[in-house]
Specification:
The protein has 140 residues and is an alpha+beta fold. The protein is 34% helix and 12% strand. The chain starts with a helix and ends in a 14-residue tail after the last helix. Pfam families: Rdx (PF10262). Residues 83-140 are annotated as: Disordered.
């Protein structure tokens, strides 16, 4: 089971990132150990392209014991993307989907809906009510 998961994650990452990712090493272990480490050389450091002085960095992307299980493929892709190509859109695998998080836009109301809303609002505004909900006798 574990070796299948390793191959699955490796194939997904290679198909998503292609040559950007370079190499994936699958190292099966026993005792419930499952970690995903990313070793990479940042392509852009402080706005400069391919800096020869850029140091190779290593980061732990996933630890089964710390995270409480195995990652979903999309989560693993997002974490790899955040280090290799932060501006890249992963489409349906992205955190907020293809177009990013957008606030819900209220659809415009039809004229009939607007009239009924304004009529009910004006009726409510013209009639004053007592705290118990009855209509005020002086306001009739």
């Amino acid at each position: 089971m574990l070796t299948y998961a390793l191959r699955k994650f490796g194939q997904e990452l290679l198909s998503t990132f292609g040559t950007t990712i370079g190499e994936i090493s699958l190292i099966p272990a026993t005792g419930g150990i499952f970690t995903v480490n990313l070793t990479y050389k940042p392509s852009e450091v402080a706005g400069a392209k391919e800096d020869a002085s850029a140091e190779v960095q290593s980061v732990l992307l996933w630890d089964r014991k710390a995270e409480g299980g195995f990652p979903e493929t999309k989560v693993l892709k997002q974490r790899v993307r955040d280090h290799l190509e932060p501006a890249r859109n992963l489409g349906h695998s992205d955190v907020h989907g293809k177009h990013g998080a957008k606030p819900a836009v209220e659809q415009p109301k039809s004229t009939a809906e607007m009239k009924s809303t304004s009529e009910s609002t004006s009726d409510i505004a013209s009639v004053k009510r007592n705290p118990d909900g009855s209509i005020c006798e002086d306001c009739r």
